[in-house]
Every structure is written in structure tokens, then in C-alpha cells.
Amino acid sequence: MTDNPWIRCPKPRPDARVRLFCIPHAGGGAATFRLWQDQLPGDVEVRAIQLPGRENRLLEKPFTEVETIVEELSLLIRPDLDRTYAVFGHSMGALIAFELIRQLRLHGAELPEVLLASGYRAPQVRLPGAPIHLLPNSEFLEEVQRRYDAVPREALENAELMELLLPTLRADIAVCDSYVYRDDDPLPLPIVALGGEHDGQVGVRDLEAWKEQTSGSFGVQQFPGDHFYLQTAQEALLARVSAELAKAGG
Fold it and tell me: Is 91 in the active site?
């Protein structure tokens, strides 16, 4: 297992042909992808990004801006880019993945074979509605649930647990709220935009707009489910991910 606190790899595959870096949604951690390794081809190694402020890094202060995340992550991930790799990001994770690749390009680092952007509108498309990360706790949680249904009921009913989780969730939402898109050249690699058919925040047009961000090939696919379709349609999603990784390095 890597000793980098930013990268979790519970089942290392030293001979893997391709590495898949996975970046979770707002409030989520590396455990989001804990079952993926066993459901992907044997030549794939999953490495999940663990941001500060969650799971084993719960006591660390979370970041509130995407720029500071990718500046640090782009340096810490560099030693792990020694073979063919791809990047998957869900919701906030898709935004981080996109800006991470831009940052890697800026520093002349090896780029991924493909960006798998899930559950997030193309970065040049403005988020609808007013920022919510500064709302009082009750209003903030109500709006997060209305938009994403992101917090499990058992967590909402546990005041002590919510006291621990709220700062990270609020910081993650601030990452999205504060994001300002900057024009730049399209990425020279394929992008595949993925989402749920019944996601009330990210529609097919939002996914199709990712095409503007690549000078390579582009694909889009929706799956049964809502914003967290990756949990309810995991088998179908991982079939598409596997198909994209099979092309990597070819």
C-alpha cells in the first residue's frame, strides 16, 4: 500500500497494466470505491484519493478551494504516475479531476489516458442557484439534501456524527461554489461524461458540454438512477469504465 496519505490502495496490484485514480464526491472519501477493485479487470489497480477532513484524515482541516487541492495533489500524485493511468471523478471529484489534469499539464507531467467525469456539469457551465456553503446548518443541510440527497438518514439523525461531518461537507460544497472557470486549451485526451438519468442537478446537456474540454474523442452515457447512480447502477457503470480502460495504452 502506498504510504501517501492522499492515496489509498488497499489491494495493490504491482503488475497492473493501468492505474485508475478515483476522486470522490463532496463529503465522500476513498471508501466510496472500496468495492471497485474486485469488480474491475485483473490488470487494473484502483487508487482512491483521500482528501483531508474525512475517514482516516477526519481531524485534518479540509480545503475550500479547488486550486489549493490540485496544487498539492498534483505534486503528491506524481510518483504514482509511473505507468499508464486514468482518472475517474464523481460530482465534486469530477471538477477536481479536471483541474488536476490541467495542473499536471502545466507542469509537463504525464497525462492520463482518459478522464471519466461523473455526475458533474462541464466546468464551463455555471452552477445554478446561489452559493449555499455559508447558510446556517439547518438550511445548508436542507439544500444539500434537496439537490443531492447526499447525507444518509442515520447520519442526519445523529447530532454528534453530523457535528463531525458538517465542516467537511460545508468545505467541499465551498469548493464547488467558489470555482471560477478559466479558459484554456482543451485537454489532449479522451473524456467520457457519465451521469444518472434522473439526476435533478446534472442533465444530459450538462454532460454533453464536456465535449468542449477535449481535443480527443468524447463519449457520454447516462445510467438508471439519480445523482448517486454509481451506487445503484454500479455493475453497468464499471462495465463502461472497464471498456474505457481496455483502450488505455493501446
Answer: yes
